[in-house]
Every structure is written in structure tokens, then in C-alpha cells.
Fold:
Amino acid sequence: SAVISQKPSRDICQRGTSLTIQCQVDSQVTMMFWYRQQPGQSLTLIATANQGSEATYESGFVIDKFPISRPNLTFSTLTVSNMSPEDSSIYLCSVRTSSTDTQYFGPGTRLTVL
Amino acid sequence: AQSVTQLDSHVSVSEGTPVLLRCNYSSSYSPSLFWYVQHPNKGLQLLLKYTSAATLVKGINGFEAEFKKSETSFHLTKPSAHMSDAAEYFCVVTPTPDKFYFGSGTKLNVKP
Structure:
């Protein structure tokens, strides 16, 4: 398994601003992912964060709105840009090591946009 | 195409009685299947996973799940519910390691 931390754990932001969420893992991992969980909903994959190259986005998510960085094998950031109340969600990062197909999840960042 | 259906959005049981959370899936491949639990204001915790080694999979906290290919089901069970089991449970199918498809979730309520 892996120990994953996220910062911030929660935030309240004004519309039109941006928030960067950090994800740190205690070991080097092959794959890192970012998910969104809207209120009362299941999880939806936003993108796969690739080390050393651009992230791979799922349908409905674009780089201008959710830019992602992954500078090394233990760290990634997700920015939620030009926020609106519809962006209020829990954002979770997850990781997968090369030896397993299991994903391990961080504790999530609860974002409220006013 | 891949999908996963959790048949009950809410399940309510009394403490000490059995728990059954139902999950059906469809997949073009031989998938891996997972159950995760999410306690209020917490992240997701892996309960158990199936990867074709054995059809009956035992997980943490007394939970187990049985893979039934003929029924395309992967139902989660526990013989005796505890108050601490109250949470939301997600069934996940992953036909390839990088694609996790989440069910809509089942909220389990445990009554004293």
C-alpha cells in the first residue's frame, strides 16, 4: 500500500479564483490519478497525471480548467481554475504502484465555492 | 463497454444482523473487481479485491465478497453488522489497471 496526503484538506473559495491541491505519496509510484466527487455522487476520473509529460484528461475535463503537474514520482498538483459554485466537490488523488492494479486514495480535499 | 451497477442506493440493517450490498458489472474483459468504503468526511479505504485467484474473497473488518461470473455479480456481505460499519460502499470494476469504473455507491445505515 501507500500513504497519501493531500493539502489543503478543505477550503472555501470565491468564484473566479483558483485553488491548487497538492498530493504527496510516501513512495515512488507509477501512476497518479485525480478524481472528483460531487455532493452525493460517486467518483469521476478527471485525469491521469503522467510523470514528465502532460496529463491525460477524461472526456468532459480540459487542461485549461484543471491543469495538472507531476514533477516527480511522489508528487502531483491539481489546480481548479476560474472556479464557480459548480466546482464545489471533494477532489481525491489516488496512486497505483507498478506491482499491483489496486488504487489507493488520499483523504480528499473538500472544496466549497461561494 | 464497462459498467458497474449497485442495486441499492441505501441499505438499513440492525446491529448484529447480516449485511448484503449488491453489485453487478459488465465488462468486455476479465476484470478486477474491488469494494471500497468511505466513512463520513474520510477518504476511500480498500475493503477487498478480486483478481481471479479465488471466487470468494475475504477482506478487512469481516467483509467478504463472492465473484459469480454466470451472474456477473460481486456482492459484498458481512455476517453481523456493527455500528462502525455505517458508511458508503463503492463497487469498482477495472478492466485495465488504469481505468477504474465506480458504481453509484450504497449508503449503509446500521440501527442500534
Notes: Chain A has a mean pLDDT of 93.
